[in-house]
Amino acid sequence: MRSLKYVIFPLLALFSACKSAPQQINDVQAAQNADARLTLGTIESQLHNGMSSAAVIETFGPPNIVTTDDQHREVWVWDRISTMRAHTNSGGWATILILGIGNKANTTSVSQRTLTLIVKFDDQKKVRDFSYRYSNF
């Protein structure tokens, strides 16, 4: 009986620590939705000087980095990197009597996008300045 608890308790701990597939999918989708809020269009259309810090978080989600400038005013940074990978393959086979001819082609395309948003706040926690950088390669 005593040795049984050394087997059951670790198994219970293992199974209680694992997430189910639907939970993992929900976590991934939540992260993707948060990233979807930070786009060039959203920055250009909704971010403006005088905007409150609460409205900024509501629009873009929480920043990756919070720091201060030399006058102890807050500076928030959002930094996003996405990688798109496309892989295609095609093949064919032809038979002439007993001889065969095979053909196979693989293509992989990879691109990356980066978007960095820097928002500087004044002493009243209102946006005083912002800048962004976007690259696609």
From TrEMBL:
Superkingdom, natural source: Bacteria
UniProt keyword terms in alphabetical order: Signal
Signal peptide: 1-21
Name the UniProt record assigns to this protein: Lipoprotein
Annotated source species: Commensalibacter papalotli
